[in-house]
């Protein structure tokens, strides 16, 4: 359900070529969505807010890095899993509803990205995030 309850969890399992185990987007090109705390802080400042809660953006994973890579096929390692950037996720109208008018505009290029699961595995809260080079062998 697109607007179902938001549940924070300590650990998720990513399945190669599928996505987040049990997620509604599993098996689609939008297998996993990520948002960064650094970009949310910049968006909050631009919108005149104290903060934007990453959980309320409805992304699968909130990472504590300054900026996410946007280049298609860039590899990101988190915990046991490795992701390939698919595309930027533009903010939806829900951002204005949840955080206040103007937040959607402030979140442009800061609302996260979609990725596919290149190597499956478990991701736990606090796992290191490493941005690797673009994957030249795959598109």
Provide structural commentary.
The chain has 139 residues and is of the alpha+beta class. The model has no long low-confidence stretch (mean pLDDT 93). It contains three helices and nine strands. The longest helix is centred in the N-terminal third of the chain and has 11 residues, at 37-47. The chain has one domain (30-134): PK beta-barrel domain-like (M1 Pyruvate Kinase, Domain 3, Beta Barrel). The relative contact order is 0.25. Strand 3, helix 1 (37-47) and strand 4 form a beta-alpha-beta unit. It has a six-stranded mixed sheet. Strands 2-1-8 form a three-stranded antiparallel sheet, with no helix packed on it.
């Amino acid at each position: 359900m697109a607007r179902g309850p938001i549940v924070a969890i300590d650990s998720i399992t990513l399945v190669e070529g599928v996505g987040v185990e049990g997620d509604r987007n599993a098996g689609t090109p939008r297998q996993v969505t990520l948002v960064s705390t650094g970009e949310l802080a910049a968006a909050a400042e631009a919108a005149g807010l104290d903060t934007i809660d990453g959980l309320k953006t409805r992304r699968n994973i909130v990472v504590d890095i300054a900026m996410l890579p946007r280049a298609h096929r860039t590899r990101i390692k988190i915990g046991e899993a490795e992701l390939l950037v698919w595309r930027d996720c533009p903010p939806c109208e829900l951002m204005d509803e949840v955080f206040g008018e103007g937040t959607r505009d402030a979140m442009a290029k800061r609302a996260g990205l979609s990725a596919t699961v290149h190597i499956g595995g478990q991701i736990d809260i606090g796992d290191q995030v490493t941005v690797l080079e673009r994957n030249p062998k795959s598109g």
